[in-house]
Specification:
Elements (H helix, E strand, L loop, with lengths): L2 E10 L6 E6 L9 H9 L7 E4 L10 H8 L7 E3 L3 H4 L30 H9 L4 E2 L3 E7 L2 E7 L39 E4 L5 H9 L4 E4 L8 E2 L3 E2 L8 H6 L1 E4 L12 E5 L18 E9 L2
Parallel strand pairs: 1-14, 2-3, 3-4, 4-5, 7-8, 8-9, 9-13
Antiparallel strand pairs: 2-14, 6-7, 10-11, 12-13
Helix pairs in contact: 1-2, 2-4
Pfam family, one: Metallophos
InterPro entries: Calcineurin-like_PHP, Metallo-depent_PP-like, Metallophosphoesterase_sf
Organism: Actinomyces respiraculi
Length: 297
């Protein structure tokens, strides 16, 4: 029972026109996820200004063709993406109790062989539509003839992240572009979006220091098995449960204390899929999110 969530995020400068951003994450596709593919395709009716995909598109290699079908209606739109660990390696059975550990990866058998997934094809499929590949790099996209700055990293859960230095900004941006060529964030600088699959604090802190206005992540499945009125029990990373349950927060400010909030908004998608071995969600429906970026008051 997937749901489309709608959220307003006040990250634009006064006078800027609102932008809509469709956030997809954690599709975990196989050859048996036709209903999920059809639901994702139906979101094309929204005609968002920007599409963001924060990874874990596959569970098995058989999900590659369904992924192509799911993303086909969106590839003509401005978009950007990062990869997740399940774009690189197949899902394998693991005891669900492993997620109760401080770091679930401690329960993994280092000798276990895991099938590689066709990650080059996953990457190239998204690139084919002109989506910006933000694997440990910076970039930009054009929306309604104006530019948005981007930064992203490869998946921190697989220790593949290397945060790009400011000097790596493409020369295409030019040394001092005219102000009216950029969508402006609420601080007056060009709007800056950050993408990461797993929202580890080391990456989020780097993005906050880098003046990112809105960071987008997935990976956590919203906790997947949640308690009504309490929310996520685990996050599968070092991010606190409350930010995963709330989905939208400010980082690293203390939730519930606006005066301590940082300038950066963080959206953690609960995603659309699960492991094929644990196809269960409790009090946490599969989701995609349409974020409307608005001028700050």
């Amino acid at each position: 029972m997937p749901v489309l969530r709608r959220l307003d995020v006040p990250v634009l400068a006064p006078g800027e026109e609102p932008l809509t951003l469709l956030h997809l994450s954690d599709l975990h596709l196989t050859d048996r996820t036709a209903a999920r593919v059809a639901w994702v395709r139906s979101l094309s009716r929204l005609q968002p200004d920007i599409v963001i995909n924060t990874g874990d598109n596959l569970s098995f290699a058989s999900g590659l063709a369904p992924l192509s079908d799911a993303l086909e209606p969106f590839l003509q739109l401005p978009g950007a993406f990062v990869m997740g660990d399940h774009d690189y390696r197949s899902t394998t059975f693991s005891l669900p109790t492993r997620y109760l550990r401080r770091d679930p990866r401690d329960a993994d058998d280092p000798q276990r062989e895991v099938e590689a997934l066709p990650w080059h094809e996953v990457r190239d499929l998204q690139r084919s539509g002109g989506w910006v590949d933000l694997t440990n790099t910076r970039g930009e996209l054009r929306v309604r003839g104006r530019r948005v700055r981007l930064v992203g990293v490869d998946d921190p859960h697989a220790d593949r992240d290397v945060y790009p230095q400011p000097s790596e900004v493409s020369e295409a941006a030019g040394p001092s572009p005219s102000e009216n060529t950029w969508v402006r964030g609420r601080e007056g600088h060009p709007l800056h979006l950050g993408l990461v699959h797993a929202p580890y604090r080391r990456v989020l802190s780097a993005m906050s220091a880098d003046d990112v206005d809105l960071a987008l992540a997935g990976h956590t499945h919203g906790g997947q098995l949640c308690l009504p009125g309490f929310g996520a029990l685990v996050t599968n990373c070092d991010l606190d449960r409350e930010r995963v349950t709330r989905r939208l927060s400010q980082y690293p400010g203390q939730i519930g204390q606006p005066q301590a909030a940082d300038h950066m908004y963080l959206h953690v998608s609960a995603g659309l899929g699960t492991s094929p071995f644990t196809p269960v969600r409790l009090a946490c429906r599969p989701e995609a999110t349409l974020l409307t970026l608005l001028p700050a008051e």
